[in-house]
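Predicting holo structure, glutamic acid bound.
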Amino acid sequence: MKTTLQKIRTRIAPSPTGYLHIGTARTALINYIFAKQHKGDFVLRIEDTDILRSESRFEDDIVEGLEWLGVHWDEGVKVGGDNAPYRQSERTETYKKYIKELLEQGRAYHCFCSEEELEAHRQSMLSEGKPAVYSGRCAGLGQKEAKEKMEKGEKSIIRFRSPSKKIKFEDVIKGGVEFETDLIGDIAIAKDENTPLYNFAVVVDDHEMNITHVIRGEDHVSNTPKQIVMQEALGFKRPIYAHLSLVLGSDKRKLSKREGAVSLVEYKKDGYLPEALLNFLILLGWSPGDDREVFSIDELIKEFKLEKFQKSGAIFNIKKLDWFNAYYIKRKNIKELAELCLPYLLEADLIQEVEGGKFLIKSASEKVGMEWIEKVVFLEKERIKKLSEISYAVSFFFTDKVSMANSDILIWKKSSKEEVLEALNKVLMKLDSVREGEFNEVNLKDALAGLAEEYGNGTIFWPLRVALSGREASPGPLEMADVLGREKTLSRIKDAISLLSEK
Ligand code: GLU
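Done. Tokens:
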């Protein structure tokens, strides 16, 4: 017998009522990986049924964040596809068809209860310790009666008549889940025929878009039985459900803004690399079962197992993200890294782009090329955790003179001021003897070898480091001298000598 296997299709269905944050990005990533590991499709649908709270700037943020992360959708807003449109606000006709069908079959009815009545009922149920389900007061109204009320201008919404039964579903992550529909009551599915509500629109769209796997946050578990009863009424196939445990803050509560509940685009601006964020996100709830932590997207497509996703919440730890980011920064080739750092140097006003592919060092009125910027960035490659840290890290390369708040830092801990002055003067003489074309790290090391032996490495190299950078923490002094060049190196040493002599 010939069987045709259904193509796996997943989706992310964010509501554009806020920025794309870590939790949704992680859900999108998992849906993407799952689809790709099954040679399936991943869809981006925008759930903007909440017209008042939906904003196009949030949709733009979602699109930008996902594109940057490298989670590419096969169908959806911006790219289109066979199931367009992908914005719920543009799919009204589709929902209308199904709302009509449910009304005609008596599976849905108009409810005329006012908000005040509903709230009063809710409160009285709660005070009796009962679940706050709809009373069913309008469930008995015939279609004719409802029509008359509407003609008189009475306001209504549309409710789905929930059957009284037990709903069971097998969640890929949580295992068997059961709900009594009596605890759900009749479900509000649309404000009117043109204005569907989430639980109904999602059922129609997942069906119309042939979604096979609904992978989403655990906060939607309680919506699932509502969606299942509607699927059953409409004769739709039930997708496979997987509810992901949530991302929590270090206090094990909902992720706060301070700890990471900000737009993904903010992470981009802050200088996180998408490969680092992606790697970090997947480990929030999944591990390969051994101690490996570093995964590329292609490796994840091979190794990720949805059924192994952890049942308990995952704690967001920014230090771990920084660790991944530093890891991926170190592995960038220098050309790529310099390109990535360039916007930060421009933004910090250290340089300005001028004609001929050159850059003007603003405080030194000197022009440099990209090759020089690459050398500078290379020296800090091991030290920065985020791209945004580059501008401070390299700023002393982009100044005419080094600024030093306190010249005491020139003095190596085991030596005296006089010794340091003597050492710096000797260093100056030695480096002065190295000619312009030969002023490189190897020759400088040779030139200072005897002094280092005589005075000790600390006494020689410490003040040189501080003289060149103005800092106690910096790349190696000889590497810096190489990049700064003969003239700047010698003048910075001279400046340090006069600063120390004046003390
Ligand atoms: N629009 C819903 C949300 O943003 C999506 C829920 C779902 O994936 O079914 O949470």
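The chain has a mean pLDDT of 95.
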